[in-house]
Amino acid sequence: MRLIPFALLLVASSLQAATAPATADSAALYQQHCQSCHGLERLGGAGPALLPESLSRLKPAEAHQVIRDGRPASQMAAYGALLDETQIAGLVDYLYQPAAQPPTWQAADIRASQRLLVDPQTLKDTPQHGADPLNLFVVVEAGNHHVRILDGDRFEELARFPSHFALHGGPKFSPDGRFVYFASRDGWVSVYDLHNLTMVAETRAGLNTRNLAVSNDGRWVLVGNYLPGNLVLLDARDLSLVKIIDARGQDGTPSRVSAVYTAPPRDSFVVALKDVQEVWELSYAGEPDFQPRRIVARDFLDDFSFTPDYRHLLATSRKAHGGQVIDLDAGKPVADIELPGMPHLGSGIYWKVDGRWVFATPNVSKGLISVIDLQTWKLIKEIPTEGPGFFMRSHANSPYAWTDVFFGPNQEAVHVIDKQKLEVAHTLRPMPGKNAAHVEFTRDGKHLLLSVWDSDGALIVIDAQTLKEVKRIPMNKPSGKYNVGNKIEYAEGTSH
Ligand code: DHE
After folding, report:
1. Which helix (H) or strand (E) holds 9?
2. Which of 21, 28, 206, 490 has its CA 20 to 30 A from that of 131?
3. Is position 264 within any domain?
4. Nearest CA owner, ligand 1 atom 36
């Protein structure tokens, strides 16, 4: 998917907010009031990192308000009584400026950050909660930086615990579904034991992280970073550092890492680079050396999806005004797919129509779902929606694919698409006026959980056949939720 315009939108809107220029006083104010929580070099501590890279999603006007009024339900205090408006505006300007010395995060920093949070001897090897371990849901409650574990049969909560600030992307699971791995935007990687409902270990793998992947043999965690631009390989048992792999193109150009995924049938990690036109494949079969196999792409890559056999990957291409298809076996791009708007191929899903695989992708700039034939790479259908969308989900046992209307005035709507007719069959508005978004099915596909992204939002359980609401669990911006069984089986219709 080509995500730049959305990111640019955030940055562009942030540039419109007026700020007073930072002065020498601003740096001193930072040291006096902020440094103890946000770190000496703004790298983060008890509070999040405050580097420009970390703040790209927060408008300066919002930062100003948080400094003045504090942030509810967090340790961020209000400084309005201590600092005047000009001092706050100068401080905000200071935070959005690059650090005088480019920040570094090296092997010694990663090693020093690693913490074991439980004595492994005390952990039991069987589930201690009485629920079906393969039908648990891991729910990220973004509004208050917590995670909930739900029993996917009874939709009851088994555990709730605080996460690092701003988890992002899908958590990933060990092959047996026992351990779940989280990444925060500030680079913290944590592993949680779903049998014992306890956090096991954490390590800060970078300063600004994209996402992580877990190898299909459960031995390795690979973390993709924007800052520093690298891949960090961790031992999946305790998150100790194994190796740092600099992200550089074959001509030495440094790059950020857009995304990393595991490709189970290939026993490899596949990595998209953001600033050089290369895809990397790193095998973890046998005794791996994690040397990247480089595939030259036709364009820069952001997030991407695999075809069902993991032979091809589909990524957005601005040059092709749509998507590029890369053949991992042949090691080269094989097709361009012309698509309108800004397709979000990383969120696409596949299913069969008349025995042929199709791939459907939402579009972050146009109200439509593009459906592509995976044999011919041709666009076969455009399904109109009420506005641009972000996520898509289905299940092999469901006749429907679900997609949101994430952007624009109709963001309360969610479309239910008939997978065979390739048309919207139903449009639901689960909480009028509030953003209905991300969906995930139970392991058997009989129910689905839908997020309403609002501080006064909810996780809504829906019967996948009748589309009737079964249960509503109030939550503060539940972002993604992930079913253990679907994830470890890399099930059709869910994210991988
Ligand atoms: Fe995400 C997944 C990139 C903004 C919520 N998002 C991903 C992944 C990538 C990505 C590469 C896949 C990671 C994985 O699952 O391993 N996201 C980006 C961006 O580049 C972008 C547009 C801008 C940015 O600053 O990063 C972006 N993402 C957002 C949001 O604003 C969202 C809506 C709220 C948030 O939490 O920040 C958001 N992204 C999500 C979620 C997933 C995700 C919930 C997991 C989807 C899944 O079902 O697996």
Report:
1. helix 4-15
2. 490
3. no
4. 168
Which ligand 1 atom sits closest to the C-alpha of 390?
A: 33
Nearest CA among 137, 283, 279 for reference residue 217: 283
Q: 67-81, 202-216, 408-422: lowest mean pLDDT where?
A: 67-81
Closest by CA position to 179, among listed 157, 204, 202: 202
Cβ of 217: how many Cβ atoms within 10 Å?
14
Q: How confident is the model at residue 46 (pLDDT cuts 50, 70, 90)?
A: confident
Tell me how far the alpha carbon of residue 459 lies from the centroid of ligand 1, in angstroms.
18
What does each C-alpha distance from 290 to 108, 241, 258, 388 come to in angstroms? 20, 14, 18, 39
Residue 340 lies in a domain: no
Report how far residue 415's alpha carbon sits from residue 402's, in angstroms, rounded to the nearest whole number. 6
**Residues forming beta bridges with residue 356, ordered by sequence position:** 353
Q: Which ligand 1 atom is at minimum distance from the Cα of 302? A: 11
Cβ 57 under 6 angstroms from ligand 1: yes
For the chain, the average pLDDT equals 94
**Residue 330 identity (one-letter amino acid):** A
Q: Is 211 in the pocket of ligand 1 (CB under 6 A)?
A: yes
Using the predicted structure, report yes or no on whether residue 17 has a pLDDT greater than 80. Answer: no
Ligand 1 site, residue 451, Cβ cutoff 6 A: no
Q: Which of 168, 302, 407, 439 to mutate to test the pocket of ligand 1 (most atoms within 8 A of CB)?
A: 168
Specify the number of domains making up the chain. 1
Both tokens of 86, joined, read 């000009």
For the chain, state the CA radius of gyration: 22
Question: Over the range 312-338, which residues count as b (16 or more CB within 10 Å of their CB) and which as e?
Answer: bbbbbbeebebbbbbebeeeebebbbe
Q: Indicate if ligand 1 lies below 6 Å from the C-beta of 8.
A: no
pLDDT for the residue numbered 19: 60
DSSP characters over 129-186: SSS-GGGEEEEEEGGGTEEEEEETTTTEEEEEEE-SSSB-S--EE-TTS-EEEEEBTT
Distance 94 CA to ligand 1 centre (A): 27
Structural domain containing residue 31: 16-95
- Residue 175 CA to ligand 1 centre (angstroms): 23
The CATH number given to whatever domain includes residue 29 is 1.10.760.10
In a domain, 44, yes or no: yes
For ligand 1, atom 49, which residue shows the shortest CA distance?
Answer: 170
Cα–ligand 1 centroid distance for 370 (angstroms): 20
Q: Does ligand 1 come within 6 angstroms of the Cβ of 170?
A: yes
| pTM passes above 0.85 | yes
**CA–CA dist 130, 269 (Å, integer):** 34
